[in-house]
Amino acid sequence: MGRTLRQWFDKAAYPMSYHFSKILSSDFNAAIAKVTEALKQEGFGILTEIDMQAALKNKLGVDFRRYTILGACNPPFAHQAVTAEPHIGTMLPCNVIVQEHAPGQVEVSAVDPVASMMAVKNDRLGAIAGDVRAKLKRVVEGL
Q1: DSSP 91-118
Q2: If we measure between CA atoms, which residue out of 72, 143, 69, 52 comes closest to residue 113?
């Protein structure tokens, strides 16, 4: 049997955090395109794209920085996860955010699936979450 979620969540290697982030010197739209392509290279597709800036303006009338949530899915891993845990879909897809802090300064952050799966008491998710974590870390670190 593979490692448990607690074993995957090695605090020495990964201090308690629920995301991985990297700051890019990039145009916002170019950053989204780069992230989307990097996710594709790791087997992820984008299921949803939420423009928080537009949503907050439309719903609340407030101005907000450019902030987009990409709902990324790797179908083989998603299938494994829902097979191992029928309600895990409440935690899918894997969210990746792209937010602009200043012109030309864009932060990309991805959820740490191991951290989010810690709430689920199912050790069969450990290897799946660990594999997805590795892929998402490669995406963020490779930008």
Answers
A1: G-SEEEEEEEEETTEEEEEEE-HHHHHT
A2: 72
* Among 2, 23, 13, 3, residue whose Cα is nearest residue 112: 13
Question: Does residue 113 have a cis peptide bond before it, meaning omega lies within 30 degrees of 0?
Answer: no
Smallest CA-to-CA distance from 130 within 108, 115, 110 is with 115
Task: Write down the pTM of the prediction.
Answer: 0.86
Distance CA 15, CA 11 (A): 5
pLDDT in tens, 22-65: 999 999 999 999 999 999 999 999 999 999 999 999 999 999 99
Question: Which positions ≥6 away from 96 have C-beta within 8 Å?
Answer: 35, 39, 69, 70, 72, 108, 109, 110, 111, 136, 139
Other Cβ atoms less than 10 A from the Cβ of 58: the count is 10
Whether the CB-CB separation of 98 and 68 falls below 8 Å is answered with yes
